[in-house]
Amino acid sequence: MKKIEIHTFSELIAQGKTPEILFWVGCAGSFDERAKKITKAFANILTQANVSFAVLGSEEGCTGDPAKRAGNEFLFQMQALTNIEVLNGYNIKKIVTTCPHCFNTLKNEYPELGGNYDVIHHTQFIKSLLNDGRITIKGGSFKGKRITFHDPCYLGRANNVYEAPRDVLKKLDIELSEMKSCKQKGLCCGAGGAQMFKEAEKWNKEIFVERTEDALETHPDIIATGCPFCNTMISDGVKAKEKEKSWNPEWDGIDWDNHKRMCETAETVMPNDLISYDKLAIGDSHAICMYRPQWQNLSVPFKTLHGALKEGLESFIQNKDVAYSNIEFYFGNIDVRHHLCRQDDPYKATEELVDEYLRQAIEISVKRNCKVSLYELLPIENESRSIPKTGWYKNTPFYGSWDERNKIRKHFKTYLKQQIEEANLYNVEVYEWVGGLINSSSELNFDCMEKPQSVHLSRKWYPHWQGYEWSHAPHIDYEPYPERESTTLESFFT
Questions:
Q1: Cβ neighbours of residue 30 under 8 Å, at least 6 residues apart?
Q2: Which one is the CATH code of 256-493: 3.40.50.1110, 3.30.300.30, 3.20.20.450, 3.30.70.1890?
Q3: DSSP letter assigned to residue 134
Q4: In the chain, where does the domain assigned CATH 3.40.50.1860 lie?
Q5: Sequence ranges of the chain with CATH classification 3.40.50.1110
Q6: Burial level of 37, CB count in 10 A (0-12/13-18/19+)?
Q7: Could you tell me whether strands 428-431 and 371-375 are parallel, antiparallel, or unpaired per DSSP bridges?
Q8: How many CA atoms lie within 13 A of 333 on its CB side?
Q9: Cα 376 to Cα 13, 233, 286, 311, 331, distances in angstroms
Q10: How far apart are CA 100 and CA 121, in angstroms?
Q11: CA 320/CA 32 separation, integer angstroms
Protein backbone atom coordinates (compact mmCIF):
# COMPACT_ATOMS: atom_id res chain seq x y z
CA MET A 1 0.00 0.00 0.00
CA LYS A 2 1.32 3.39 -0.98
CA LYS A 3 2.09 5.99 1.64
CA ILE A 4 -0.34 8.92 1.59
CA GLU A 5 1.32 12.17 0.61
CA ILE A 6 -0.82 15.30 0.47
CA HIS A 7 0.54 18.40 -1.21
CA THR A 8 -0.86 21.86 -1.66
CA PHE A 9 -1.47 23.34 -5.08
CA SER A 10 1.14 26.01 -4.42
CA GLU A 11 3.79 23.36 -3.69
CA LEU A 12 3.14 21.42 -6.91
CA ILE A 13 2.84 24.53 -9.08
CA ALA A 14 6.22 25.65 -7.75
CA GLN A 15 7.62 22.29 -8.90
CA GLY A 16 6.12 22.77 -12.36
CA LYS A 17 3.47 20.08 -11.80
CA THR A 18 -0.25 20.37 -12.51
CA PRO A 19 -2.45 18.07 -10.38
CA GLU A 20 -5.29 16.16 -12.01
CA ILE A 21 -7.83 17.39 -9.48
CA LEU A 22 -8.23 19.75 -6.57
CA PHE A 23 -9.51 18.00 -3.46
CA TRP A 24 -11.75 20.55 -1.74
CA VAL A 25 -11.68 19.46 1.90
CA GLY A 26 -14.33 21.78 3.35
CA CYS A 27 -14.84 23.06 6.88
CA ALA A 28 -16.26 19.79 8.24
CA GLY A 29 -13.54 17.72 6.61
CA SER A 30 -10.93 20.00 8.16
CA PHE A 31 -12.23 20.42 11.70
CA ASP A 32 -14.91 17.83 12.55
CA GLU A 33 -13.25 14.77 14.12
CA ARG A 34 -15.37 12.19 12.30
CA ALA A 35 -15.31 14.07 8.99
CA LYS A 36 -11.50 14.29 9.22
CA LYS A 37 -11.43 10.49 9.05
CA ILE A 38 -13.45 10.68 5.82
CA THR A 39 -10.93 13.19 4.45
CA LYS A 40 -8.04 10.84 5.21
CA ALA A 41 -9.91 7.84 3.79
CA PHE A 42 -10.65 9.61 0.51
CA ALA A 43 -7.07 10.87 0.26
CA ASN A 44 -5.97 7.26 0.68
CA ILE A 45 -8.28 6.14 -2.15
CA LEU A 46 -6.87 8.84 -4.42
CA THR A 47 -3.34 7.77 -3.54
CA GLN A 48 -3.94 4.09 -4.22
CA ALA A 49 -5.65 4.94 -7.53
CA ASN A 50 -2.59 6.97 -8.62
CA VAL A 51 -4.67 10.12 -8.93
CA SER A 52 -2.59 13.27 -8.96
CA PHE A 53 -4.33 15.60 -6.51
CA ALA A 54 -3.66 18.54 -4.26
CA VAL A 55 -5.43 20.67 -1.66
CA LEU A 56 -5.42 24.40 -1.07
CA GLY A 57 -4.44 24.09 2.57
CA SER A 58 -4.60 27.41 4.39
CA GLU A 59 -5.73 29.11 1.17
CA GLU A 60 -9.07 27.26 1.28
CA GLY A 61 -11.87 29.20 2.94
CA CYS A 62 -15.49 28.41 3.67
CA THR A 63 -17.52 28.27 0.46
CA GLY A 64 -20.07 30.60 2.03
CA ASP A 65 -22.86 28.02 2.05
CA PRO A 66 -23.91 28.56 5.71
CA ALA A 67 -23.94 32.34 5.24
CA LYS A 68 -26.07 32.16 2.10
CA ARG A 69 -28.57 29.71 3.63
CA ALA A 70 -28.85 31.97 6.67
CA GLY A 71 -29.68 34.93 4.41
CA ASN A 72 -26.37 36.81 4.64
CA GLU A 73 -25.76 37.32 0.93
CA PHE A 74 -23.07 39.94 1.55
CA LEU A 75 -20.93 37.56 3.62
CA PHE A 76 -21.49 34.78 1.11
CA GLN A 77 -20.23 36.86 -1.79
CA MET A 78 -17.19 38.02 0.17
CA GLN A 79 -16.25 34.40 0.98
CA ALA A 80 -17.04 33.15 -2.52
CA LEU A 81 -15.08 35.88 -4.33
CA THR A 82 -12.04 35.26 -2.12
CA ASN A 83 -12.11 31.55 -3.01
CA ILE A 84 -12.71 32.25 -6.71
CA GLU A 85 -9.68 34.52 -6.83
CA VAL A 86 -7.51 31.70 -5.42
CA LEU A 87 -9.02 29.01 -7.68
CA ASN A 88 -8.72 31.10 -10.84
CA GLY A 89 -5.20 32.10 -9.85
CA TYR A 90 -4.16 28.45 -10.03
CA ASN A 91 -6.28 27.92 -13.19
CA ILE A 92 -8.14 25.09 -11.47
CA LYS A 93 -10.67 23.31 -13.66
CA LYS A 94 -11.69 20.12 -11.80
CA ILE A 95 -12.73 19.94 -8.13
CA VAL A 96 -13.73 16.89 -6.07
CA THR A 97 -15.27 17.28 -2.60
CA THR A 98 -16.72 14.98 0.06
CA CYS A 99 -19.25 17.59 1.21
CA PRO A 100 -22.54 18.04 -0.73
CA HIS A 101 -22.89 21.58 0.66
CA CYS A 102 -19.54 22.56 -0.84
CA PHE A 103 -20.39 20.56 -3.96
CA ASN A 104 -23.65 22.42 -4.55
CA THR A 105 -22.24 25.87 -3.82
CA LEU A 106 -19.13 25.46 -5.97
CA LYS A 107 -21.10 23.87 -8.83
CA ASN A 108 -24.24 25.97 -8.95
CA GLU A 109 -23.58 29.32 -7.26
CA TYR A 110 -19.97 30.19 -8.05
CA PRO A 111 -20.48 30.46 -11.86
CA GLU A 112 -22.52 33.68 -11.62
CA LEU A 113 -19.61 35.19 -9.66
CA GLY A 114 -16.98 34.13 -12.19
CA GLY A 115 -16.04 30.71 -10.82
CA ASN A 116 -16.62 28.05 -13.48
CA TYR A 117 -15.39 24.58 -12.56
CA ASP A 118 -16.11 20.92 -13.16
CA VAL A 119 -17.28 19.97 -9.65
CA ILE A 120 -17.71 16.30 -8.69
CA HIS A 121 -18.89 14.64 -5.49
CA HIS A 122 -16.49 12.03 -4.14
CA THR A 123 -19.00 9.19 -4.62
CA GLN A 124 -19.23 10.08 -8.32
CA PHE A 125 -15.45 10.16 -8.57
CA ILE A 126 -15.04 6.82 -6.79
CA LYS A 127 -17.58 5.29 -9.17
CA SER A 128 -15.58 6.57 -12.16
CA LEU A 129 -12.38 5.09 -10.68
CA LEU A 130 -14.15 1.75 -10.36
CA ASN A 131 -15.51 1.91 -13.90
CA ASP A 132 -12.04 2.74 -15.25
CA GLY A 133 -10.45 -0.10 -13.31
CA ARG A 134 -8.16 2.25 -11.38
CA ILE A 135 -9.38 0.75 -8.09
CA THR A 136 -11.25 -2.38 -7.01
CA ILE A 137 -13.40 -2.90 -3.96
CA LYS A 138 -14.06 -6.03 -1.92
CA GLY A 139 -16.77 -6.40 0.67
CA GLY A 140 -14.41 -7.08 3.58
CA SER A 141 -16.03 -6.35 6.93
CA PHE A 142 -19.07 -4.89 5.13
CA LYS A 143 -19.89 -8.05 3.16
CA GLY A 144 -23.41 -9.26 3.87
CA LYS A 145 -24.28 -6.18 5.95
CA ARG A 146 -27.71 -4.62 5.61
CA ILE A 147 -27.18 -0.95 4.73
CA THR A 148 -29.65 1.85 4.14
CA PHE A 149 -28.59 5.09 2.44
CA HIS A 150 -29.81 8.56 3.41
CA ASP A 151 -29.83 10.98 0.48
CA PRO A 152 -28.27 14.35 1.37
CA CYS A 153 -30.49 17.19 0.13
CA TYR A 154 -27.70 19.02 -1.69
CA LEU A 155 -26.56 15.83 -3.38
CA GLY A 156 -29.92 14.34 -4.24
CA ARG A 157 -32.79 16.72 -4.87
CA ALA A 158 -30.53 19.72 -5.53
CA ASN A 159 -28.25 17.95 -8.02
CA ASN A 160 -30.00 14.69 -8.94
CA VAL A 161 -27.11 12.49 -7.74
CA TYR A 162 -28.78 9.32 -6.44
CA GLU A 163 -27.21 6.30 -8.07
CA ALA A 164 -23.47 6.96 -7.67
CA PRO A 165 -23.34 6.42 -3.89
CA ARG A 166 -25.61 3.40 -4.16
CA ASP A 167 -23.53 1.85 -6.96
CA VAL A 168 -20.40 2.23 -4.84
CA LEU A 169 -22.10 0.67 -1.79
CA LYS A 170 -23.28 -2.30 -3.87
CA LYS A 171 -19.65 -3.05 -4.76
CA LEU A 172 -19.16 -3.98 -1.09
CA ASP A 173 -21.44 -7.04 -1.49
CA ILE A 174 -23.97 -5.55 0.90
CA GLU A 175 -27.75 -5.74 1.06
CA LEU A 176 -29.09 -2.29 0.20
CA SER A 177 -32.35 -1.60 1.98
CA GLU A 178 -34.19 1.56 0.93
CA MET A 179 -36.18 3.75 3.30
CA LYS A 180 -39.82 4.40 2.49
CA SER A 181 -38.90 8.02 1.73
CA CYS A 182 -35.77 7.99 -0.40
CA LYS A 183 -34.24 9.57 -3.50
CA GLN A 184 -36.58 12.31 -4.82
CA LYS A 185 -38.91 11.76 -1.84
CA GLY A 186 -36.09 11.66 0.70
CA LEU A 187 -36.60 13.55 3.96
CA CYS A 188 -34.11 16.19 5.09
CA CYS A 189 -32.05 15.26 8.16
CA GLY A 190 -32.49 18.77 9.54
CA ALA A 191 -29.02 20.17 8.78
CA GLY A 192 -29.88 21.89 5.50
CA GLY A 193 -30.55 25.58 5.12
CA ALA A 194 -28.01 26.50 7.85
CA GLN A 195 -30.16 24.67 10.41
CA MET A 196 -27.06 22.70 11.41
CA PHE A 197 -25.89 25.67 13.46
CA LYS A 198 -29.01 26.53 15.46
CA GLU A 199 -31.49 25.01 17.84
CA ALA A 200 -34.58 23.60 16.17
CA GLU A 201 -37.95 25.28 16.53
CA LYS A 202 -40.27 23.73 19.08
CA TRP A 203 -42.37 20.95 17.61
CA ASN A 204 -43.60 17.51 18.59
CA LYS A 205 -40.46 15.85 17.25
CA GLU A 206 -37.00 16.85 16.02
CA ILE A 207 -36.67 16.26 12.28
CA PHE A 208 -33.37 14.38 12.69
CA VAL A 209 -35.16 11.94 15.03
CA GLU A 210 -37.94 11.43 12.50
CA ARG A 211 -35.42 10.78 9.73
CA THR A 212 -33.51 8.36 11.96
CA GLU A 213 -36.76 6.49 12.62
CA ASP A 214 -37.22 6.14 8.84
CA ALA A 215 -33.75 4.60 8.65
CA LEU A 216 -34.22 2.28 11.64
CA GLU A 217 -37.45 0.93 10.16
CA THR A 218 -35.30 -0.86 7.56
CA HIS A 219 -33.51 -2.75 10.39
CA PRO A 220 -30.05 -1.80 9.07
CA ASP A 221 -26.66 -2.87 10.32
CA ILE A 222 -25.29 0.41 9.00
CA ILE A 223 -26.85 3.76 8.06
CA ALA A 224 -24.79 5.38 5.31
CA THR A 225 -24.85 8.89 3.93
CA GLY A 226 -22.64 11.03 1.71
CA CYS A 227 -22.57 14.22 3.78
CA PRO A 228 -20.72 15.15 6.99
CA PHE A 229 -23.65 17.28 8.16
CA CYS A 230 -26.12 14.41 7.61
CA ASN A 231 -23.63 12.14 9.34
CA THR A 232 -23.76 14.29 12.46
CA MET A 233 -27.56 14.61 12.48
CA ILE A 234 -28.28 10.92 11.89
CA SER A 235 -25.69 9.93 14.51
CA ASP A 236 -27.42 12.22 16.99
CA GLY A 237 -30.73 10.64 16.02
CA VAL A 238 -29.41 7.13 16.67
CA LYS A 239 -28.04 8.24 20.04
CA ALA A 240 -31.40 9.78 20.90
CA LYS A 241 -33.23 6.57 20.04
CA GLU A 242 -30.76 4.45 22.05
CA LYS A 243 -31.17 6.76 25.05
CA GLU A 244 -34.92 6.54 24.69
CA LYS A 245 -34.71 2.73 24.66
CA SER A 246 -32.22 2.54 27.51
CA TRP A 247 -34.57 4.17 29.97
CA ASN A 248 -37.88 2.76 28.83
CA PRO A 249 -39.47 0.97 31.81
CA GLU A 250 -41.94 -0.78 29.51
CA TRP A 251 -39.24 -3.18 28.44
CA ASP A 252 -38.64 -5.21 31.53
CA GLY A 253 -40.13 -3.63 34.60
CA ILE A 254 -36.84 -2.55 36.20
CA ASP A 255 -36.89 0.69 38.18
CA TRP A 256 -34.62 2.56 35.77
CA ASP A 257 -35.26 5.93 37.39
CA ASN A 258 -33.91 4.63 40.69
CA HIS A 259 -30.77 3.28 39.04
CA LYS A 260 -30.27 6.51 37.12
CA ARG A 261 -30.58 8.54 40.33
CA MET A 262 -28.16 6.19 42.07
CA CYS A 263 -25.60 6.63 39.30
CA GLU A 264 -25.93 10.40 39.14
CA THR A 265 -25.75 10.82 42.92
CA ALA A 266 -22.82 8.43 43.29
CA GLU A 267 -20.93 10.38 40.66
CA THR A 268 -21.27 13.61 42.62
CA VAL A 269 -20.16 12.16 45.95
CA MET A 270 -17.21 10.12 44.73
CA PRO A 271 -13.94 11.82 45.78
CA ASN A 272 -11.88 13.18 42.92
CA ASP A 273 -8.85 11.15 43.92
CA LEU A 274 -10.79 7.95 43.17
CA ILE A 275 -11.68 8.98 39.65
CA SER A 276 -9.75 6.99 37.03
CA TYR A 277 -10.73 7.25 33.42
CA ASP A 278 -8.38 4.55 32.23
CA LYS A 279 -10.80 1.76 33.18
CA LEU A 280 -13.76 0.64 31.09
CA ALA A 281 -16.77 -1.57 31.85
CA ILE A 282 -18.87 -2.61 28.86
CA GLY A 283 -21.74 -5.01 28.32
CA ASP A 284 -25.45 -5.42 27.76
CA SER A 285 -28.22 -3.85 29.87
CA HIS A 286 -27.08 -5.77 32.96
CA ALA A 287 -23.93 -3.68 32.86
CA ILE A 288 -25.97 -0.47 33.10
CA CYS A 289 -26.60 -1.30 36.69
CA MET A 290 -22.95 -2.18 37.37
CA TYR A 291 -22.19 1.50 37.63
CA ARG A 292 -18.94 2.61 39.25
CA PRO A 293 -18.22 6.32 39.21
CA GLN A 294 -14.45 5.95 38.81
CA TRP A 295 -14.84 3.82 35.66
CA GLN A 296 -16.08 4.60 32.21
CA ASN A 297 -19.27 2.65 31.60
CA LEU A 298 -20.59 1.80 28.18
CA SER A 299 -23.81 -0.15 27.80
CA VAL A 300 -25.11 -1.84 24.66
CA PRO A 301 -28.71 -2.81 25.58
CA PHE A 302 -30.02 -6.07 24.09
CA LYS A 303 -26.74 -6.92 22.40
CA THR A 304 -26.05 -10.66 22.48
CA LEU A 305 -22.54 -11.92 22.95
CA HIS A 306 -23.05 -13.86 19.72
CA GLY A 307 -23.77 -10.59 17.89
CA ALA A 308 -21.00 -8.69 19.67
CA LEU A 309 -18.39 -11.26 18.66
CA LYS A 310 -19.51 -11.08 15.02
CA GLU A 311 -18.93 -7.33 15.08
CA GLY A 312 -15.76 -7.72 17.17
CA LEU A 313 -15.48 -6.78 20.86
CA GLU A 314 -12.90 -4.16 19.95
CA SER A 315 -15.53 -2.31 17.90
CA PHE A 316 -17.49 -1.47 21.06
CA ILE A 317 -14.58 0.31 22.69
CA GLN A 318 -15.29 3.91 21.74
CA ASN A 319 -12.11 5.60 22.96
CA LYS A 320 -9.68 3.83 20.67
CA ASP A 321 -6.71 5.94 21.72
CA VAL A 322 -7.10 5.55 25.51
CA ALA A 323 -4.51 3.28 27.14
CA TYR A 324 -6.91 1.36 29.40
CA SER A 325 -5.38 -0.52 32.32
CA ASN A 326 -8.54 -2.61 32.84
CA ILE A 327 -11.43 -3.56 30.56
CA GLU A 328 -14.42 -5.53 31.89
CA PHE A 329 -16.95 -7.31 29.70
CA TYR A 330 -20.50 -8.23 30.74
CA PHE A 331 -22.14 -10.18 27.93
CA GLY A 332 -23.98 -13.44 27.51
CA ASN A 333 -27.27 -13.29 29.41
CA ILE A 334 -29.35 -12.59 26.35
CA ASP A 335 -27.62 -15.43 24.51
CA VAL A 336 -28.94 -17.94 27.03
CA ARG A 337 -32.54 -16.78 26.60
CA HIS A 338 -32.59 -16.18 22.87
CA HIS A 339 -29.69 -17.98 21.20
CA LEU A 340 -28.00 -20.90 22.96
CA CYS A 341 -31.11 -22.83 24.00
CA ARG A 342 -32.33 -22.79 20.39
CA GLN A 343 -29.37 -24.88 19.22
CA ASP A 344 -29.46 -28.65 18.65
CA ASP A 345 -26.58 -29.03 21.12
CA PRO A 346 -26.72 -25.95 23.39
CA TYR A 347 -23.70 -27.10 25.45
CA LYS A 348 -21.49 -27.41 22.37
CA ALA A 349 -22.79 -24.08 21.09
CA THR A 350 -21.98 -22.52 24.47
CA GLU A 351 -18.42 -23.81 24.37
CA GLU A 352 -17.90 -22.55 20.82
CA LEU A 353 -19.19 -19.14 21.88
CA VAL A 354 -16.91 -19.09 24.92
CA ASP A 355 -13.88 -20.12 22.84
CA GLU A 356 -14.38 -17.17 20.49
CA TYR A 357 -15.12 -14.86 23.45
CA LEU A 358 -11.83 -15.83 25.08
CA ARG A 359 -9.90 -15.53 21.81
CA GLN A 360 -11.04 -11.96 21.27
CA ALA A 361 -10.46 -11.09 24.95
CA ILE A 362 -6.86 -12.34 24.72
CA GLU A 363 -6.39 -10.42 21.48
CA ILE A 364 -7.57 -7.20 23.16
CA SER A 365 -5.42 -7.76 26.26
CA VAL A 366 -2.30 -8.27 24.11
CA LYS A 367 -3.05 -5.46 21.66
CA ARG A 368 -3.83 -2.94 24.39
CA ASN A 369 -1.42 -4.32 27.01
CA CYS A 370 -4.14 -4.29 29.66
CA LYS A 371 -6.00 -6.60 32.01
CA VAL A 372 -9.27 -7.97 30.66
CA SER A 373 -11.96 -9.32 32.99
CA LEU A 374 -14.81 -11.54 31.83
CA TYR A 375 -17.63 -11.73 34.35
CA GLU A 376 -19.86 -14.68 34.99
CA LEU A 377 -23.40 -14.46 33.71
CA LEU A 378 -25.90 -13.00 36.11
CA PRO A 379 -29.06 -14.93 37.05
CA ILE A 380 -31.40 -15.57 34.13
CA GLU A 381 -34.72 -14.59 35.67
CA ASN A 382 -37.23 -15.87 38.23
CA GLU A 383 -38.44 -19.41 37.80
CA SER A 384 -42.05 -18.31 37.71
CA ARG A 385 -42.34 -15.09 35.81
CA SER A 386 -44.87 -13.41 33.59
CA ILE A 387 -43.36 -11.53 30.69
CA PRO A 388 -45.58 -8.69 29.48
CA LYS A 389 -46.42 -8.98 25.81
CA THR A 390 -45.39 -5.38 25.19
CA GLY A 391 -42.26 -3.48 24.27
CA TRP A 392 -39.10 -5.51 23.81
CA TYR A 393 -40.65 -8.82 24.88
CA LYS A 394 -43.59 -8.68 22.49
CA ASN A 395 -41.87 -10.68 19.77
CA THR A 396 -38.93 -12.20 21.66
CA PRO A 397 -39.81 -15.61 23.07
CA PHE A 398 -37.54 -17.26 25.63
CA TYR A 399 -36.14 -20.63 24.53
CA GLY A 400 -35.72 -23.62 26.81
CA SER A 401 -37.21 -24.13 30.26
CA TRP A 402 -36.04 -22.05 33.19
CA ASP A 403 -34.04 -25.04 34.46
CA GLU A 404 -32.39 -25.54 31.05
CA ARG A 405 -31.48 -21.87 30.80
CA ASN A 406 -29.99 -21.83 34.27
CA LYS A 407 -27.91 -24.96 33.52
CA ILE A 408 -26.54 -23.32 30.37
CA ARG A 409 -25.69 -20.20 32.40
CA LYS A 410 -23.69 -22.28 34.88
CA HIS A 411 -22.01 -24.27 32.08
CA PHE A 412 -20.98 -21.01 30.40
CA LYS A 413 -19.31 -19.81 33.58
CA THR A 414 -17.67 -23.15 34.40
CA TYR A 415 -16.29 -23.73 30.91
CA LEU A 416 -14.95 -20.17 30.62
CA LYS A 417 -13.16 -20.40 33.94
CA GLN A 418 -11.78 -23.84 33.04
CA GLN A 419 -10.37 -22.62 29.72
CA ILE A 420 -8.65 -19.68 31.33
CA GLU A 421 -7.10 -21.82 34.06
CA GLU A 422 -5.86 -24.40 31.55
CA ALA A 423 -4.30 -21.70 29.40
CA ASN A 424 -2.57 -20.24 32.47
CA LEU A 425 -3.43 -16.70 31.44
CA TYR A 426 -2.32 -13.95 33.78
CA ASN A 427 -4.00 -10.97 32.14
CA VAL A 428 -7.45 -12.44 31.43
CA GLU A 429 -9.62 -13.46 34.36
CA VAL A 430 -13.14 -14.64 35.11
CA TYR A 431 -14.84 -13.03 38.06
CA GLU A 432 -17.66 -14.51 40.05
CA TRP A 433 -19.11 -11.20 41.02
CA VAL A 434 -21.48 -12.68 43.61
CA GLY A 435 -18.45 -13.68 45.66
CA GLY A 436 -19.31 -14.48 49.27
CA LEU A 437 -22.43 -12.38 49.39
CA ILE A 438 -24.68 -15.32 50.18
CA ASN A 439 -23.29 -15.42 53.68
CA SER A 440 -22.21 -11.81 54.08
CA SER A 441 -25.57 -10.14 54.11
CA SER A 442 -28.80 -11.87 55.09
CA GLU A 443 -30.87 -9.10 53.51
CA LEU A 444 -29.52 -10.13 50.13
CA ASN A 445 -30.91 -13.63 50.46
CA PHE A 446 -34.23 -12.69 48.98
CA ASP A 447 -35.71 -10.78 46.10
CA CYS A 448 -32.86 -11.28 43.70
CA MET A 449 -34.91 -10.01 40.80
CA GLU A 450 -36.35 -6.54 40.56
CA LYS A 451 -39.91 -7.46 39.60
CA PRO A 452 -41.84 -10.49 38.38
CA GLN A 453 -41.31 -9.20 34.81
CA SER A 454 -37.63 -8.45 35.27
CA VAL A 455 -34.46 -10.18 34.13
CA HIS A 456 -32.26 -7.82 36.17
CA LEU A 457 -31.20 -8.14 39.78
CA SER A 458 -32.85 -5.96 42.39
CA ARG A 459 -31.44 -2.54 43.15
CA LYS A 460 -30.40 -3.80 46.57
CA TRP A 461 -27.82 -6.01 44.94
CA TYR A 462 -25.85 -3.74 42.68
CA PRO A 463 -24.02 -1.70 45.32
CA HIS A 464 -22.70 -4.98 46.74
CA TRP A 465 -21.49 -6.60 43.54
CA GLN A 466 -18.04 -8.17 43.52
CA GLY A 467 -17.34 -6.84 47.00
CA TYR A 468 -16.96 -3.29 45.73
CA GLU A 469 -16.79 -0.66 48.44
CA TRP A 470 -19.67 1.78 48.02
CA SER A 471 -19.03 3.75 51.17
CA HIS A 472 -19.57 6.98 49.23
CA ALA A 473 -22.69 5.82 47.46
CA PRO A 474 -26.05 7.13 48.53
CA HIS A 475 -28.47 5.13 50.63
CA ILE A 476 -30.97 3.23 48.52
CA ASP A 477 -34.44 2.84 49.93
CA TYR A 478 -35.59 -0.68 49.21
CA GLU A 479 -38.83 -2.53 49.67
CA PRO A 480 -39.44 -6.01 48.23
CA TYR A 481 -42.26 -6.17 45.76
CA PRO A 482 -45.16 -7.75 47.69
CA GLU A 483 -47.03 -9.20 44.74
CA ARG A 484 -44.90 -12.36 44.58
CA GLU A 485 -42.99 -14.83 46.66
CA SER A 486 -39.34 -13.98 47.35
CA THR A 487 -36.58 -15.84 45.57
CA THR A 488 -33.55 -17.11 47.45
CA LEU A 489 -29.99 -16.97 46.25
CA GLU A 490 -29.59 -20.70 46.45
CA SER A 491 -31.89 -21.13 43.48
CA PHE A 492 -29.35 -19.29 41.36
CA PHE A 493 -25.91 -19.91 42.76
CA THR A 494 -25.91 -23.41 44.21
A1: 36, 39, 60
A2: 3.40.50.1110
A3: S
A4: 9-131
A5: 256-493
A6: exposed
A7: parallel
A8: 21
A9: 63, 38, 12, 21, 9
A10: 7
A11: 17
Cα 320 to Cα 43, 282, 324, 367: the distances in Å are 22, 14, 9, 11
**CATH class in words for 140-246:** alpha beta
**CATH number for the domain formed by residue range(s) 9-131:** 3.40.50.1860
DSSP 55: B
What are the pLDDT tens digits along the chain (494 aa)? 778 889 999 999 999 999 999 999 999 999 988 899 999 999 999 999 999 999 999 999 999 999 999 899 999 999 999 999 999 999 999 999 999 999 999 999 999 999 999 999 999 999 999 999 998 887 677 888 889 999 999 999 999 999 999 999 999 888 899 998 999 999 998 888 877 777 766 667 788 888 998 998 888 888 999 999 999 899 888 877 764 443 333 333 334 454 454 444 444 434 344 445 677 888 877 665 555 555 676 767 678 898 889 889 888 887 777 788 888 888 888 888 888 988 889 999 999 999 999 889 888 888 888 888 887 777 676 655 555 555 555 556 678 887 888 889 889 988 888 887 776 665 665 555 444 444 444 444 445 665 555 666 665 555 554 444 433 333 333 333 333 344 444 444 44
Report whether 392 contacts 284 (CB < 8 A). Answer: no
Rounded (10°) angle between helices 402-423 and 346-368: 40
Task: Measure the CA–CA gap between 305 and 300, rounded to whole angstroms.
Answer: 11
